[in-house]
Amino acid sequence: MSDTALVATSKGLIVFKRSDNGWRFDHDEFLGMPASLVYVDPRDGAWWVSLAHKHWGQKLHRSRNRGKTWENITPPSYPNDLEMKPGIKARLRYVCAFSHGGFDKPERFYIGTEPGGLFITEDDGKTFNLVRSLWDHPSRELHWFGGGRDYAGIHSILVDPNDTSHVFIGVSCAGVFETNDDGRNWQAANKGLKANYLPNPDVEVGHDPHMMYICKSNAQIMWQQNHCGVYRSDNGGKSWKDVTAENELGRYGFALAIDHKNPDCAWIIPAESDEMRISVNKKLVVCSTRDAGASWQEHRSGLPQENCYDIVFRHSLAYDGKTLMFGTTNGSIYFSEDRGLNWNCLGNHFPKVTAAVSYTHLTLP
Predict the structure, then answer these.
(1) What is the pLDDT of residues 105-149, one digit of tens each?
(2) Distance set, CA 228 to CA 131, 188, 193, 327 (Å)
(3) Kind and range of the H or E element at 143?
(4) Strand partners, 211
(5) Among 229, 234, 230, 203, which Cα is nearest to 218's?
(6) 253-290: per-residue pLDDT in tens?
């Protein structure tokens, strides 16, 4: 069972601890600074945090001792002569995703960024290099575009737990891309997805996955909350099936969590629509499936059901095997100890939540 929860907010990183009486606020880090992303490396327990300064740009910090001390990590940078599009210089605009590179590669770490660049370090963060094979993919210049932000962003990096040379990425907006040869070549993996906002919804590239996971116990099973519904793959990303609820709840949303021990179990937090990014009917609801999306259940106990405008960003819902936790754009943080059936509120006056690693995933000394 987890003992620590990390929540990135627009005013810093908030750390919660579990006590005999439940979860409690412990302390904060980078107070007043915009913490845009937080990640815990399951290989060594290191905490990674990105700060999105309006004036100083993107900053990276890492702690190997649960926040007692922090080291500055030089953020990745694009080559000086690189252009996103003709006449537009490529530069780091936002850090969108972190991922370790595999237990067999202890010094490999990935960072996904806006404007659609994937960076890799093979020396434990001393240097980061742009994965040029992906950047130079023939679809990028014409068919990758911004969704909620100005340019495409890599927000999901999924390393196959059985083969670390096999990696998927989720790009908003472009879709899913896959490499089977350690990043030398990449191909689109969007068969079955729909892009209903485009003239041709069946395009090969131009899809908008909002969050994506690969099941650690069965890498053939993948899930994504998409701009156009909830999708699942049973064949390792070769094709996707729409498993959105019959009542359309979940057709739009950002957040997704899955049970890595039970590949048929997942949770989402729906939003009204892309035009109205608020809770559905102004009522906050978490939906779960335990049968691979064949049916969905709604969970509202402990959640506001009147005049609620909250939504939950893509990285702001997490699950550790028992406890679910999420934070909202209006600064409310909720947790459930019974797999989402009932919810408790940690507080309603926190800053806007941008990301949450609900748990350290392992107990460290």
Answers:
(1) 999 999 999 999 999 999 999 999 999 999 999 999 999 999 888
(2) 29, 18, 8, 23
(3) helix 140-143
(4) 225
(5) 234
(6) 999 999 999 999 999 999 999 999 999 999 999 999 99
Residue 282 has phi, psi (to 5 degrees) of: 60, 35
What distance lies between CA 278 and its chain's CA centroid? 19
Which residue is associated with the tokens 């109205």? Answer: 276
* Residue 250 near residue 270, CB atoms below 8 Å: yes
Distance CA 352, CA 9 (A): 5
Residue 274 in tokens = 């892309």
Q: How far apart are the first and last CA of the chain?
A: 15
Contact 263, 221 (CB under 8 A): yes
Burial class from Cβ neighbours inside 10 Å (0-12, 13-18, 19+) for residue 69 reads exposed
Residue that is written with structure tokens 């999901």 in the block: 156
Give the whole-angstrom CA distance, residue 262 versus residue 296.
Answer: 15
- pLDDT at position 365: 27
Tell me the whole-structure pTM to 2 decimals.
Answer: 0.95
**The pLDDT of residue 214:** 98
Average pLDDT over residues 160-167: 98
Contact 119, 76 (CB under 8 A): yes
Between CA 297 and CA 287 the distance in angstroms is: 5
Return d(Cα 67, Cα 174) in angstroms, integer: 36
Whether the Cβ atoms of residue 357 and residue 318 lie closer than 8 Å to each other: yes
Cα distance between residue 163 and residue 180, in whole Å = 9
How many other C-beta atoms can be found within 10 angstroms of the C-beta atom of residue 55? 4
Q: Which residue in the block uniquely carries the two structure tokens 């987890």?
A: 2
Helix (H) or strand (E) holding 344: strand 344-347
Query: DSSP secondary structure string, 300-337?
Result: -BTS--SS------TTSEEE-SS-EEEE-TTS-EEEES
